[in-house]
Amino acid sequence: MEFKKEVLELLAEICQDDVVKENPDIDLFENALLDSFGTVELLVQVEERFGITVPITEFDRDVWNTPNNIAAQLADFK
């Protein structure tokens, strides 16, 4: 499976909403799809599923705010 698609699947699980796959430019924080607990869960799952460690200090809400941005950021960490 394509990496971006896998990231979108993971986000859909964490946000409990398929809108993240339908609209990958949706702002997850503005639309209350992701909060601080979800962010921690996302980073834990990213490490478990993809073996990518993202320090919480690298997580900037303004950069990691949409599914597309998250997939792009994670691709840079790969």
Structure annotation, total helices: 4
Spans of at least 5 consecutive residues whose pLDDT stays below 50 are none
Order of helices and strands: HHHH
- Percent in strands: under 5%
Q: In CATH terms, what is the architecture? A: Orthogonal Bundle
Helix content: 55-70%
CATH class division: Mainly Alpha
How many DSSP-defined strands? 0
**CATH fold assignment:** Non-ribosomal Peptide Synthetase Peptidyl Carrier Protein, Chain A
Radius of gyration: 11 Å
Q: How many structural units, i.e. domains?
A: 1
| Terminal-residue CA separation | 15 Å
Note the overall shape: globular
The CATH superfamily is identified as: ACP-like
Q: What integer is the average pLDDT?
A: 95
By secondary-structure content and strand pairing, the structural class works out as: mainly alpha
Question: Could you list some keywords that capture this structure?
Answer:
mainly alpha, Non-ribosomal Peptide Synthetase Peptidyl Carrier Protein, Chain A, 4 helices, 55% helix, 0% strand
Write up this protein.
This protein has 78 residues and is mainly alpha-helical. The chain has one domain: ACP-like (Non-ribosomal Peptide Synthetase Peptidyl Carrier Protein, Chain A). It contains four helices and no strands.
Task: Give a topology summary.
Elements: H1 3-15, H2 19-22, H3 36-50, H4 67-77
Helix pairs in contact: 1-3, 1-4
Short description:
By secondary structure, the protein is an all-alpha fold. It has helices at 3-15, 19-22, 36-50, 67-77.
